[in-house]
Design brief:
alpha/beta; 10 helices
């Protein structure tokens, strides 16, 4: 077969040279032919894929759904679902009620006193149980305070006597002089003569001895705590019963609420510090104070100002008077609380809960601040044996009643008098100051609330205009 000469092809295409109008349609036709062939191939493949995945598979799924079609919900099954939802609601209500069903310190006072067998000693006994309960909570977490000034003095005197004996035997220098025997080594803390509460200049050896005593105390404790720093503890120390029974009943009731709050705080500390041998490595180093008034107001009074000004990490300087005891007060409106209520929860006559506020100050490792706050607000367990005491088999209920309303974090000066004899380990520590809300489910403790408290709340509710 003859192969066309290239020149012949050019001659045949020369027709377009004389007629350029035909060139564009011919090019378009050629491009169309080239595109048509792959389009047909792709179209066939797409049809096959649609047939397989959409029509065949989809049809099979429709057939399967038709075969599995369930019977419409019958009235009987709908009733069962309604009952199940009702049971869920009842269970939630029961959990809320159980959260405030707590054992009492005294069953002779609440809900009412037997006037035929009444004696003012029941309030004295209540105070003794309150103080013993606080001491038991401290013991449960191996809580101890720093060495007292008396312990420091005794330790230094014992060391001085021992040193004097050694000096007589070996001719050592006077440890209280500024000579070589008393000046060896760096001071562990503070300056010469800086021991608080001690007269006269003190040597470096004295400072070392004191530091060793403080370190030993810290290594033997799980958390620093002094019962006098817990609201209500000192109130019952020398309690004298008033001839008027109503104030005494109110006083005992408010301190019963305070005791439940204190229990939860110690449970939170125990959970936070779990797994540590001493406070030197534990997150919560010191439970510095628990207050229900912060010295701002008398329980039950109505402050005119809504502003709350408070110091950070303060410590009570003196015991409060009986009528100004550090005890809880129901929060009917903002001026009754320690801060504004961010939750909008108050103790109102028609409400389902009662509310109190409290303030806690603690020395905490900086890295564990959130851990302690989470434990404080977490669910906790408690035992309940019924009202009156022992009327039911012991049961374990759960409660979660604390909400943090305000927090402050401050630096700690180890040379401050508040911290001088305390040792907190190698962790960076801060002073954590919290104002918290504590709620009570009315249905849970309504059977034991004294009538005087109910009447007082009703009158406060009326005066607040709610």
């Amino acid at each position: 077969m003859d192969i066309p000469n290239f020149k012949d092809i050019l001659q045949k295409l020369s027709v377009f040279k004389n007629n350029t109008a035909l060139l564009v349609p011919v090019i378009v036709a050629l491009v169309g032919i080239l595109l048509f062939i792959p389009a047909q191939l792709l179209s066939g493949k797409l049809k096959a894929q649609v047939q397989k995945e959409s029509i065949t598979a989809g049809g099979a799924k429709v057939d399967r759904l038709r075969r599995d079609f369930s019977v419409p919900i019958q009235p009987e099954s709908l009733d069962a679902r309604i009952v199940a939802h009702g049971n869920d609601a009842n269970e939630i209500s029961d959990l809320g009620r159980q959260s405030t069903m707590r054992d009492l310190l005294s069953y002779d006072i609440f809900p009412e006193i037997d006037v035929n067998n009444f004696s003012g000693l029941i309030f004295v006994e209540f105070g003794q149980k309150f103080r013993a309960g606080i001491e038991g909570l401290i013991e449960s977490v191996n809580g101890r305070d720093c060495p007292t000034q008396v312990e420091i003095d005794v330790g230094l005197e014992a060391s001085s006597a021992s040193t004097n004996r050694r000096r007589g035997m070996f001719g050592a220098g006077d440890p209280y002089s500024m000579g070589p025997a008393g000046a060896a080594g760096p001071m562990p803390r503070g300056r010469l003569g800086s021991l608080p509460g001690m007269r006269g200049p003190r040597s470096q050896i004295d400072l070392k001895i004191v530091d060793q005593m403080c370190q030993k105390r810290a290594a033997s404790a799980f958390v620093y705590v002094n019962p006098s720093d817990i609201g209500g503890y000192d109130h019952w120390l020398d309690y004298k019963y008033d001839v008027n029974m109503v104030p005494a009943v109110k006083d005992a009731w408010y301190h019963q609420l305070a005791y439940w709050v204190t229990e939860d705080i110690f449970n939170a500390i125990a959970a936070t510090n779990a797994g540590h041998e001493s406070l030197l490595t534990a997150p919560v180093k010191r439970f510095q104070s628990l207050s229900f008034t912060m010295g701002l107001k008398r329980p039950g009074s109505r402050r005119t100002s809504k502003a709350v000004i408070r110091s950070l990490g303060g410590r009570r300087a003196s015991q409060q008077k009986d009528e100004e005891s550090d005890r809880p007060a129901y929060v009917v409106e903002d001026r009754d609380g320690l801060t504004e209520s961010l939750t909008g929860r108050y103790s109102v006559a028609e409400g389902a809960i009662d509310v109190i506020h409290f303030s806690i100050t603690a020395v905490v490792a900086q890295k564990d601040i959130l851990l302690f706050m989470q434990e404080l607000c977490s669910a906790k367990e408690h035992q309940f044996s019924g009202y009156p005491e022992g009327s039911q088999p012991p049961q374990t209920f759960k409660h979660n009643q604390i909400t943090i309303l305000e927090s402050k974090i401050g630096a700690l000066n180890p040379d401050d008098m508040l911290h001088y004899y305390y040792r907190y380990g190698d962790d960076a520590v801060v002073v954590l100051d919290l104002i918290c809300e504590y709620i009570f489910n009315k249905a849970g403790y309504e059977p034991i609330v004294p009538q005087a408290i109910k009447d007082m709340l009703a009158s406060l509710d009326e005066t607040s205009g709610r």
